[in-house]
Amino acid sequence: MKQTTKQIITGTFLATATSFISTHAFAESDNLATVNATNLNIREQPTTQGKVIGTVKKGTNVQVLSKEKEWAKISHDGKEGYVTLQFLGFSNGNPNVEQKQQLTINNGQKEEGIVTATRLNVRNSPALGSSMIGYVQKNEKVTVLGKANGWAKISYQGKEGYVSLEFVKIDGNTEEIKKPEQPKTSDATIKNGTQEVGTINATSLRVRSAANTSSSILGNLKNGEKVTVLGKANGWAKISYQGKEGYVSLEFVKLEAGKQEEKPVENITNGTQEVGTINATSLRVRSAANTSSTILGTLKNGEKVTVLGKANGWAKISYQGKEGYVSLEFVKLEAGKQEEKPAEDITNGTQEVGTINATSLRVRSAANTSSTILGTLKNGEKVTVLGKANGWAKISYQGKEGYVSLEFVQLEAGKQEEKPAENITNGTREVGTINATSLRVRSAANTSSSILGNLKNGEKVTVLGKANGWAKISYQGKEGYVSLEFVKLEAGKQEEKPAENITNGTREVGTINATSLRVRSAANTSSSILGNLKNGEKVTVLGKANGWAKISYQGKEGYVSLEFVKLEAGKQEEKPAEDITNGTQEVGTINATSLRVRSAANTSSTILGTLKNGEKVTVLG
């Protein structure tokens, strides 16, 4: 009887328990979830600050007991704890558990976040116009006190601050994805305003389908990329992205102040429709026939287009059910095409320097696409632009005039090219250093003259004269011409006049007293270097004058600084040099290991001291 009573009590308890579970929670078989994170932390409390009491690995099945906000209470290996609901997968889609929805998180719900931007500004209120109180660096941990309208309120240096929520990743030791916030109505649509040009100022900036952080990600923009901003509101910028509208955080878009847009050309009227093939790696489709209009999208090499009309180097095409404009230069029309009318001649204006911005750009004999192709220019090549009109640029090409599509020439702001001089007269000699990988030396001061040779980066040259962007130099015993743009002149340094010839006198034996002493072809520092002598080498001195020694060098005559030649006993002293009068003061740098300072301009005068390599001196005369 006791056993029967025990069985009845047990059965009643089990029935009651089963009823309780089905009423307040759910059947175990319906609430098994699979972990889809590599290692998911189990915490004592439903917060990222809760103590970790264990972990479960990816693929493990756990029993979900209840759900609270973004957390699930589970049972695993006899323990109960909380895990992030985001990393649980349910076989029946969603768990049959009671869930309290929370649209906004109050200050009481603290979360741990990690900064994902290189440098994120902290502001004193959730608005771009508010003052900055500091910044946080990439991977820094922040405590998020609340989130709203694309902003996160954080604890910063004992105060409250605001940062863009777009660049804060909520952390739960695994990559916890925050619950999408509900965008306000004001975020939904941004009206188009005055178009502006902006530059991305973040390592990687997400482009979204709407002006909120819960919308889908369309792609990413890299640091330094240019974008067209169509409108701005509530910390978001509406931009043109891959032919569509996208939204990015305005916090990371640097707007170019006062950028002048070029006026659109007159409308291109429709003519005979033609079929064309794109002949460029990537061709931009624009909203108007000018280079400042909005980019609607791009066309790839080989794509077919319907050409509705042509004028001034532009083709009006049918693009995604609308009209668009592309550079006619990169559209190959099929046989039987109607050629555009030749453009009027482009008059020469202020010369400018431009850089080619296309893989391969054709140079034509006239400003239209039917003229003869003179050649091609590669990406990055520099050109001199003589004039511009109707989407074409007249350039200097191989000593002649040529025409290229202006769409693919990036002009250097304010840089004007000087006309080549007919003849450059000799002036004050100067010392210059070549500042180019390889600089052509030409027979005349223009780009069509013959090339005499090349100079390497860092080579020293004697500049005989300058005019109109060219430098006349001494090259291999002759005169040559190089672009002055790539010659760095040494400030205030004038080349000394060649010394008079040193006559032979009594021969003497001397020893080199310098680490390395240059042997020159004449008794001045601008003459060519024949070679070098090492410390301790013996030389035969043929004559001396004005601080120079004429020596016998490799069967020829050479000249070295007498200061670094120690003559043997019984030497014939040079005559004292006349007094040197003061002239224009110049700054010089010592170019010897140790240079003696003497009381007079000869090698027999008293030594006052020494100067070390690299020391600066003021030259009086």
TrEMBL record:
SH3b domain mapped to chain residues: 30-92, 110-172, 195-257, 273-335, 351-413, 429-491, 507-569, 585-621
InterPro entries: Cell_Wall_Dynamics_Protein (IPR052354), SH3-like_bac-type (IPR003646)
Signal peptide residues on this chain, from the entry's feature table: 1-27
PROSITE patterns xref list: SH3B (PS51781)
Keywords (A to Z) from UniProt: Signal
Species the sequence originates in: Bacillus anthracis (anthrax bacterium)
Protein name: Mannosyl-glycoprotein endo-beta-N-acetylglucosamidase
PANTHER family named in the record: FAMILY PROTEIN, PUTATIVE-RELATED, GLYCOSYL HYDROLASE FAMILY 19 DOMAIN-CONTAINING PROTEIN HI_1415
